[in-house]
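Input.
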Amino acid sequence: MTKRVAVVLFNLGGPDAPESVRPFLVNLFTDPAILRVPGFVRPWLGRLIAWRRTKPAMENYAVLGGRSSLLELTEAQGEALAAVLNQDGDATYRSFVCMRYWHPMSDEAARAVKAWAPDEVLLVPLYPQFSTTTTGSSILDWEAAARRAGLSVPTQTLCCFHSDPGFATATARMVREAYDKARAELPKATGLRILFSAHGLPESIVKQGDPYQWQVEQTVAAVVEALDMPGLDFTVCYQSRVTPQKWIGPSTEEEIERAAHDKVAILVCPIAFVSEHSETLVELDVEYREIAEEEGVPGYFRVPAQNSDPGFIGALAALVRKVRGTERALCSFAGARQCPKVHGDCPHAKVRARELERA
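Output.
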């Protein structure tokens, strides 16, 4: 009898109606991993931030028809992934979606997984790079929800796949296709620069040991290597700043302005997102395009997010198979620790420390 394996896909989530925008933002900004202030301050400060950001967020989602399409896109990714995995015949796989800040969230997802009665659970983030604010927060929330649901089966977790060769190759193919298309639309004398744009983080979180920025840089290095385009003009930048703190940089806006100064066109690649959502469809496609046009950038193009691209799904399936074969409770795509020691929030290091304590 083949084993039943539940593959739980972690993603951010998004409001499913205009009236969901405020509670979605409240969930986001009251998360201790996001708003790092004393616990007694967080509930009211998080709600204040959510209240202040509701109007601009609703305007963004209005561009998308009043709701996020992230759930449907993630469900499609899950169905495609399960279809590839079930071709192996070594187990029966079923994918479940677990969103962090809007439905279906951890409690609902954990109950659904338990009802299916799996023999194993694999936790797979749709964040290529680990951060305590994304994958880390999702794992903690899932673990609490699993306990509440009484779900107790062997569980493996993929913490990151930032420079996995399969992921890098699939991403590079999409970048090259977009690059060639953009190049065909531009005069030969006009340069073309790739902006690998990732969601930003407050600098303080990185200094506390979060490995996200280092992992983003590793992703870009792996993709550029896979592109194999000598002399390629590219840079890494960060978008979506939402607080007055100092954030990691350079910002995507600054890089757009630099491109205008250098009189080169830009191809923006969302390097930390594998699904289209408001930060690609609105921030990149609308807001940053307007900035580029105002600054006089000679051309603005974007690489699409992976969504259910067969190459990406194939790479994800290979990662799932690899994780299922490991004995560690939590691992990077390469098995051993990848992050330099300065990044103390690397989950692989923490799990290894617990293993040594038990030995």
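DSSP finds 13 helices and nine strands in the chain.
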